[in-house]
């Protein structure tokens, strides 16, 4: 008696192929970066998080500075009464 066996080899889908290509490309870029810059110069996730935090602080400081400058301008600038039109 012979039992039917399903075909165990399926062709990869487009999503699987694209994931594999992206994975290989990422590995290649990482290896090239390590070879060119040296393993100690490759940024880590901790480095990326630290630099993102510094950028956030700088943006917040710039926004606060601008808010203070605008408030100072508004407090010292006399208000103008515009003439009514029609």
TrEMBL record:
<protein>
    <submittedName>
        <fullName>Uncharacterized protein</fullName>
    </submittedName>
</protein>
